[in-house]
Amino acid sequence: MRWDNLTAPPVEGDPERAAPATPPLPLALPGAVARTFDTPEFAGMTFYEVQAKSIINRVPGQSRVPFEWTINPYRGCSHGCVYCLGGDTPILMADGRTKPISELEPGDRIYGTERRGAYRRYVVTTVLDKWSTVKAAYRVTLEDGTTLIASGDHRFLSERGWKYVTGAMHGSNRRPYLTTNNRLIGTGRFAAGPKESPDYRRGYLCGMVRGDAHLGTFSYSYGVVHRFRLALCDDEALSRSERYLAHEGVATQRFTFTQASTGRRAMTAIRTSKQRDIETITDLIRWPVDPSDDWRLGFLAGIFDAEGSCSRGVLRITNSDDAILDQTTEALRRFGLSFVLEDRGQPNRVREIRLTGGLAARLRFFHLTDPAITRKRSIEGAALKHQTALRVVDIQALGLELPLWDITTGTGDFIANGVVSHNCFARNTHTYLDLDAGADFDRKVIVKVNAGELVRRELAAPKWRGAHVAMGTNVDCYQRAEGRYRLMPQIIAALRDFANPFSILTKGTLILRDLPLLREAAEVTRVGISYSVGFVDEQLWRSVEPGTPHPRRRLDAVRALADAGFPVGVLMAPILPGLSDGDESIDATVSAIAAAGATSVTPLALHLRPGAREWYAHWLAREHPHLVPRYRELYRAGAYAPQAYQRELTARVRIAARRHGLHRAELGDNRSLPEPPPPPAAEQLTLL
């Protein structure tokens, strides 16, 4: 189709900041709606919503693909990838603790943010993927001493919106960037957590037992009874106490203290009645003459788990015992935590220690002391507010290339060392199937908002004969924008209703959202699903495809689809001459593909069409200069490697497939492909 056939009327009163685009428009889109979204994952992007006139498109006759018709609801791709933070940057986890970004894994629960009303608020989200690369590093220093090691392409949330670490006012690098006039949004640097030393364990037990346990030796007419019992609703604190006591040689027994009832949670308890155990516990909780910092941190964690609360943005510790209150306030002062002690004159002399300083102080308390009970550490729904002390004071190029990490999250952002950080999202480094001569768009994405309606209309047309339709062959139909526009469920439903065969090629995991529809379609027509995985070598992936989802994550999705009953084929592409075409690499990749439950593997050698060829040539000369002569020879005739090389590659993949029980590798045989036509005399087709 041609872009001058696309139109779209403005949307009246749309709350999502839609506005009619004004000429001249990219790709000559008269009347398109230019839409931006105030969410981190789409910052800096424009979506041109158009009313397409056709949606089922015929593939150009010269293309080397085994299908004739395609559906592409998007033109351009909202996948994008920048690599950002040093591996030791602490990330705020959903349990209130922190973890270095390099140790995060897909599926981990962390904090992100979303706008609710007048404020952006903390919400729990999920790590969807993780990447790393080596890039030039910068140190960003804030007024409160927070430091962040990041690439120049990384973005942080400032009082003036998202800003890159580096940029320029003019020229090709023009973009919003940080200056010393900016303040970042967040709480500032996270405190280091405590070490689980003997003093920390003793301090924790002192706070917990004195705050919430029953301990003593009692004389009765029938004799002396020794008793220790600790009953709690929260198993995290009970398990920690049980473990710490066991470390001191005190073995306890668990039992149900009270059953759950309406409005009341169940309580579980630990106990012992041995005299030696009671004496040991009594000794463990004695007040130290000169408490160490580790003991104080443990005590604060224990007394908070026993007698503390944190609700509506207020952290409190309540008790009536003078010694407990004195030890608590002394420990808070020791670590620079401000508080007020409130005595409301209650008959039981219960007083309240209330922490002051807002969310930053609460997080500092949690990170310094590490209480066990997760629910008390929640900051879900808390508002982000400007912190004066988070002014940028210095941005320094380190003059080094360092390993840097980034993640994809459900909210599009995460909390890195106390400031809101933009996340990374996957982008295909190359397009391997030459279906379209136009450029791929990273920042300007065409969205055919009427795709579902058009598919139904064109499938119902008398001239349509029910031919197979391929999707995801130009740009990924399950790119990130699909999460917002949800065009694929409409398209799949239409194909299902007309029992029209179709296939999908993707690298994403969003396809799993549509499993119910795919199952329904598979009951009435042929449904093919394929993934693209060229190699599984992590070092090579980080070097040549750092912006794409990790190969193992793609294979996890293959397994999920296979478990759902779909035969999933894997396009083993691109196979890189001299880098991933060795027997060891082929065997490892085919083995992983077979283990994921794929039903077939289709090998495809690297295809260097214009645009991709220039990028790859630059990378190859920098990273593997010894391979440049070989690539000149292989690709001297055009974008494809010679047929002899392709046939030999296919044969070796077929052997590996049979070795690993995957007997359908012959589906990927390239021998039927015609030789590429000779180039015009004036065209420069050498790689370099």
Automatic annotation (TrEMBL):
Any Pfam family: LAGLIDADG_3
Source organism per UniProt: Micromonospora coriariae
PROSITE patterns: INTEIN_C_TER (PS50818), INTEIN_ENDONUCLEASE (PS50819), INTEIN_N_TER (PS50817)
GO biological-process terms attached to the record: intein-mediated protein splicing
Keywords: Autocatalytic cleavage, Iron, Iron-sulfur, Metal-binding, Protein splicing
Domain DOD-type homing endonuclease: 294-337
Region named Disordered: 1-24, 665-688
The protein's name: Intein C-terminal splicing region/intein N-terminal splicing region
PANTHER family, per database record: SLR0285 PROTEIN
One GO MF term: endonuclease activity
CDD domains reported for this sequence: Hint
Cited SMART domains: HintN
